Amino acid sequence: SQTIHQWPATLVQPVGSPLSLECTVEGTSNPNLYWYRQAAGRGLQLLFYSIGIGQISSEVPQNLSASRPQDRQFILSSKKLLLSDSGFYLCAWSAQGSGELFFGEGSRLTVL
Amino acid sequence: KNQVEQSPQSLIILEGKNCTLQCNYTVSPFSNLRWYKQDTGRGPVSLTIMTFSENTKSNGRYTATLDADTKQSSLHITASQLSDSASYICVVNPLGSSGTYKYIFGTGTRLKVLA
Predict the structure, then answer these.
(1) Inter-CA distances, A10 with A39, A72, A87, Å
(2) Are the Cβ atoms of A32 and B45 closer than 8 angstroms?
(3) Which among A41, A102, A106 has the least Cβ separation from residue B107?
(4) What is the separation, in whole angstroms, between the first and last Cα of chain A?
(5) Residue A107 Cα to chain centre, angstroms
(6) Could you say which DSSP state residue B83 is in?
(7) B25, B40, B65, B113: which is deepest, by most CB within 10 A?
(8) CB neighbours (10 Å) of residue A30?
(9) Alpha carbons B99 and A103: distance in angstroms, whole number
């Protein structure tokens, strides 16, 4: 069966520090991968999606970047965090040709 | 503009009672509509999925309905339990996404079930 792992679950970082959130998917090949941010009282905002290794699409201009070094690995990064980067980040995957999204457990980022 | 709106924003009910959550969307055409349950601090988990041609879909105590003419969906929870306390998110998947799905998310309804 397929599983998705996301870490760390909780992160407290000072403004200006770097960020790395990692997500891996097991039990499937060539998944579509996504990074979402969820702000309190708001819907999920798509940050990045990837249809293959090294293929990253950005949905909104921001202080963050994403990379897909391996087929089932998706990394969300920042060189210098801003206060506005605080939020709940969710990694998700879907099979090619299928619309169902499967989410990771989420990462709570607090920038102080 | 493709939008998904949910109501109410929050809801409090007593354990054992039924409730209905609403989802109105402007996405057209669309491929399918899903309801997700999200426990606090956790990732969303799919409850139901319906294509545009389906009217109703059940998953245990959860029943989703879809009216493609009025562009409305509802999620009915029967005999609520304390574990139903969560946010419920309506997600619409537009057609024509070129193989990559750009889902449209509602802001969710926060349900609290009291003993």
Answers:
(1) 15, 22, 10
(2) no
(3) A41
(4) 39
(5) 9
(6) G
(7) B25
(8) 12
(9) 19
User: In this complex, do B101 and A94 lie within 8 Å of one another by their Cβ atoms?
Assistant: yes
B39-70 b/e (C-beta count within 10 Å ≥ 16 → b): eeebbbebbbbbeeeeeebeeeebbbbbebee
Neighbours of A23 (CB within 10 A): 25
- Residue B35: name the closest of B98, B81, B1, B84 by CA: B84
- How far apart CA A42 and CA A14 sit, in angstroms, is 24
Q: How confident is the model at residue B96 (pLDDT cuts 50, 70, 90)?
A: low
Identify any residues that bridge with B23 across adjacent strands, giving them in sequence order: B6, B73
pLDDT tens for residues B48-77? 888 878 899 999 999 999 998 899 999 999
Q: Smallest Cα–Cα separation from B35: which of B106, B101, B110?
A: B106
Using the Cβ of A105 and the Cβ atoms of chain B, whether some distance falls under 8 Å is answered with yes
Nearest CA in chain A to B32: A99
For A78-111, write each residue's pLDDT tens digit: 999 999 999 999 999 998 776 788 999 999 999 9
3-state helix, strand, coil in chain B (%, to 5): 5, 55, 40
Which of B43, B93, B105 is facing A99, going by the closest CB pair? Answer: B93
Q: pLDDT averaged over chain A?
A: 92
